[in-house]
């Protein structure tokens, strides 16, 4: 995986092969960050990266100047890899070993962007818990976005606070935000 833009542009990060991950492709990541770049100033936001895996998304935010990044994954190897990489690159990433659903129930920290990259084989019911918990617990700032990465074959358009989605190759990003009533 490589960092696409910012301070560490072009740097390659090689994760151990034994990690149970499916990193976001460079093409999909570049498209996603073009969208985010048009909405926010990276140095003004806070980010929560759920199902963080290798930390690919967190590193991209850090490279672009985001200072408040929390990466959550339940796999000890993933968390240790994120901690080591963040330390090696001097990135402001806090790695947390936790079950994402339990974490969303117990945290009270608000974020501008919450990015979730859960396993693609989750059922719709399991996918639906992510926006439900984020919005029930008011974990997004008023102008914030929840972005869920999933297979292009999965449709999340009926879930709470769904806004729209964008597809890139086999990946789809679904965007969720507070609705104005």
UniProtKB/TrEMBL annotation:
<dbReference type="InterPro" id="IPR029063">
    <property type="entry name" value="SAM-dependent_MTases_sf"/>
</dbReference>
<dbReference type="Pfam" id="PF03602">
    <property type="entry name" value="Cons_hypoth95"/>
</dbReference>
<protein>
    <submittedName>
        <fullName>16S rRNA (Guanine(966)-N(2))-methyltransferase RsmD</fullName>
        <ecNumber>2.1.1.171</ecNumber>
    </submittedName>
</protein>
<keyword id="KW-0808">Transferase</keyword>
<keyword id="KW-0489">Methyltransferase</keyword>
<dbReference type="InterPro" id="IPR004398">
    <property type="entry name" value="RNA_MeTrfase_RsmD"/>
</dbReference>
<dbReference type="GO" id="GO:0052913">
    <property type="term" value="F:16S rRNA (guanine(966)-N(2))-methyltransferase activity"/>
</dbReference>
């Amino acid at each position: 995986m490589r960092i696409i833009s910012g301070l560490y542009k072009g740097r390659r990060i090689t994760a151990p092969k034994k990690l149970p991950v499916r990193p976001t492709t460079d093409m999909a990541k570049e498209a996603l960050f073009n969208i985010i770049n048009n909405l926010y100033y990276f140095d003004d936001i806070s980010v929560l990266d759920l199902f963080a895996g290798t930390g690919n998304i967190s590193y991209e935010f850090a490279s672009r100047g985001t200072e408040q990044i929390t990466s959550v994954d339940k796999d000890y190897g993933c968390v240790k890899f994120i901690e080591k990489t963040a330390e090696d690159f001097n990135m402001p990433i806090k790695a947390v070993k936790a079950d994402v659903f339990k974490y969303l129930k117990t945290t009270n920290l608000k974020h501008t962007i919450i990015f979730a990259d859960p396993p693609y084989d989750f059922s719709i019911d399991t996918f639906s818990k992510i926006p439900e918990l984020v919005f029930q617990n008011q974990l997004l700032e008023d102008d914030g976005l929840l972005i869920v990465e999933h297979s292009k074959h999965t449709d999340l358009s009926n879930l709470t606070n769904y806004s729209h989605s964008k597809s890139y190759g086999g990946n789809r990003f679904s965007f969720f935000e507070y609705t104005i009533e």
